[in-house]
Structure of 3-isopropylmalate dehydrogenase:
Amino acid sequence: SQSFTITVLPGDGIGPEVIEQAVNVMKVVEELEGVSFSFEYARLGGCAIDEDGTPLPQDTLEKARRSDAVLLGAVGGPKWDNNPAHLRPETGLLGIRKELGLYANLRPAFMLDCMVGVSALREEVVQGVDLMVIRELTGGLYFGEKRRYETENGEVASDELIYHEYEIERIVRRAFEVARLRSKKLTSVDKANVLESSRLWRKVVDRIAPEYPDVELRHQLVDSCAMELIRWPKQFDTVVTENMFGDILSDEASMLTGSIGMLPSASLADGNFGLYEPVHGSAPDIAGKGIANPTATILSAAMMLRYSFGLEKAANAIEQAVHNVLNSGVRTGDIASNKEEAVGTKEMADKIIAAM
Amino acid sequence: SQSFTITVLPGDGIGPEVIEQAVNVMKVVEELEGVSFSFEYARLGGCAIDEDGTPLPQDTLEKARRSDAVLLGAVGGPKWDNNPAHLRPETGLLGIRKELGLYANLRPAFMLDCMVGVSALREEVVQGVDLMVIRELTGGLYFGEKRRYETENGEVASDELIYHEYEIERIVRRAFEVARLRSKKLTSVDKANVLESSRLWRKVVDRIAPEYPDVELRHQLVDSCAMELIRWPKQFDTVVTENMFGDILSDEASMLTGSIGMLPSASLADGNFGLYEPVHGSAPDIAGKGIANPTATILSAAMMLRYSFGLEKAANAIEQAVHNVLNSGVRTGDIASNKEEAVGTKEMADKIIAAM
Ligand SMILES: CC(C)[C@H](C(=O)O)[C@@H](O)C(=O)O
Ligand SMILES: CC(C)[C@H](C(=O)O)[C@@H](O)C(=O)O
């Protein structure tokens, strides 16, 4: 039978709580599918700063490299907010992305019919929204050269938005592949009327497009995309863009659904390796209370089954179970209209497991 | 009596139509206020490419420099979309901003009670929204060094996001001044957890903040701001940010109102000089039909009266007239629920003039 090794990084805040439930769900998958998972725990973020003196310990990287996929809870918290950059939780996150070559960040944003009430947008605008933002994750402004220096007239600071052709090519191919499995509509977002990097981006997209004649391609400027996502989100299916634009647009797209506590993400390397994590943060304010919504982490585990292990059936089973539980009216506090009736982290996961 | 010289740049598409009506409104202001305006016409954008072989003719710059303010319609259109960069309309726009030192872009986004129906957001979320995005307009990625070169492994392209301390300082001061005249709440948006330029930005904001103890300051990350603008826009009053983030967030904020055909903007230099233009584009598809909404351009003229000429009373009179006309149910096609009853460009402007 198939066996997979998963590096589990609970992280900070509510991370450990939601991770625990996702692991429970994975154990059910073991039984149902006759596969076996071995879970290797390691530290990333604030907990690693406290224990190991660095947000990304060598041991964590080594475990991750030996494993088939990584499942991450969340990192960060006020405790580390005023640390210097090299001792901040997000530095660990950026580091692991770069070190493991996780260049393709897949961020689905979907609206379940039973959830339209939690969105800030009108029902007719968001009902049926189902889009996928694909963000380049290891290039651009995030990893270009940074400079900071003094002049006679004060300080200067700069960041470089730089892309190599091959970096654009691999993310764009991924995007076409993903679009092909969805509605075959791809929107490439750039700022080609201003940025040189965007002009190269658009050129590469246009060069690759003929290899995917079945996918309908559209170029859109980032400012226009930020508007159109609000005006009529259903016009979008798959969206691909560079790192910084993707950071902004994927969060904007998430919020259209009103329930970021339910949204998963995948960060993929070449081949089958990937890191999976919920879109939400470590929510220090509710950590340890057992009330965090585990759905996003459980759906991240489902993405792992699909993209890293090829267990499409098991992935669908989890997703279907989540839909059924939500359809039946079960809600955690973040998405409940009646907070009194909200269930806790464990109860939510148990319901999902029961529905599988 | 006071007299002011205004450089008028009708531009392309619907630009000339909406400009004509804004000029008509200004002529009414002349009478009502006993001031005199002299209107000097010049070319910018596509029309200048066609007539003068450049999107920003020297004559236009000279006229603008001799005048007290600039009123712009809109530039651009499919005719010039495939031109090389130096022959594109937006290059003229970027050029005039830089040449005239228009570093402070003020982008109000407000929801009139009678217009809540046109927003994609729920009534309770957008009712009463009234925010001002202040975008740095002559620095950052737009004007940093651009590079493009070949390597053995293909092409590379880069743009530099660079800020000098004094550039940050002047826009931040403007923002505090504006916030002081509004609800005294300022949100400074950056990506200080990743970008060196954002860390300098935040440092400068924190250095200046004590000079404005009456203004409540908050720092927010750009991805979080993109979400929060949708979740609960009423938490924002004045928002200040760098050029590229401002391009994206100001357009996102505009679309919250659902009626970008009504939103004006100001781009200010040191002192009283400024360029005023509607937020919408040149809308080539409806150009020449006499159906474009002139409200955004008329409200841009009102901003000119306020910020460049100090004619606060006249600015208020225009704004009040616009509100009254919209309240009475008069609508152009872009914001009409019943398109049959929509009025044209001239009729809309005439109603506004009558209401003054
Ligand atoms: C924490 C931060 C560095 C990170 C990013 O900007 O990539 C986060 O916002 C994300 O989107 O995963
Ligand atoms: C046309 C374009 C260069 C311009 C910009 O990005 O600044 C426009 O989007 C704007 O916001 O005025």
Notes: DSSP finds twelve helices and twelve strands in chain B. The mean pLDDT of chain B is 97.
